[in-house]
Amino acid sequence: MSGEVPILYSFRRCPYAMRARMAIAASGQTCALREVVLRNKPPEMIAVSPKGTVPVLVLPDERVIEESLEIMHWALGRNDPQGWLAPLNDDRDALDAMIAENDGPFKDALDRYKYPTRYEHFRPAP
Ligand SMILES: N[C@@H](CCC(=O)N[C@@H](CS)C(=O)NCC(=O)O)C(=O)O
Question: Of the four, 6, 110, 117, 123, which is 20 to 30 A from 24 by CA?
């Protein structure tokens, strides 16, 4: 990739993309935003990140960051005027555990609540 600013592949309603966008905004970093249709992902995104999830950040030096938490750390590691990373100094393990709980069991339960028909246990009333 050539260009001055990173490219962020994103989807407006994706919570992972939201937290990446929030951290990027808090850091003051400028990005080129590429809004993705999840059913029709752009081939140039898949070419650099075959796993096919958003967010994906492509840096001007062609490095690819394809996990939302890593995008947050990248952006806030460069500039963190609001001190978002400060709690990491207090109890990193507790913070990591909370994020893992939210990303794991909570997200699983939320998906089953929001989209019950996608899961096997769903039985429509007769
Ligand atoms: N662990 C990933 C999860 C990203 C993720 O699951 N994003 C969803 C949208 S919310 C996605 O792109 N799904 C692919 C699809 O629906 O095709 C991260 O934190 O970046």
Answer: 110
Write down the pLDDT at residue 89: 86
Backbone angles phi, psi at 29, to 5 degrees: -70, 135
Q: Name the 3-class secondary structure at 36.
A: coil
- C-alpha of residue 53 to centroid of ligand 1, in Å: 4
Global pTM? Answer: 0.89
Q: Which residue, judged by its Cα, is nearest atom 5 of ligand 1? A: 53
pLDDT in tens, 72-110: 999 999 999 999 999 888 888 998 999 999 999 999 999
Topology given in CATH for the domain delimited by 7-78: Glutaredoxin (3.40.30)
Atom of ligand 1 nearest to the CA of 69: 19
Q: What six digits make up the tokens of 78?
A: 């460069």
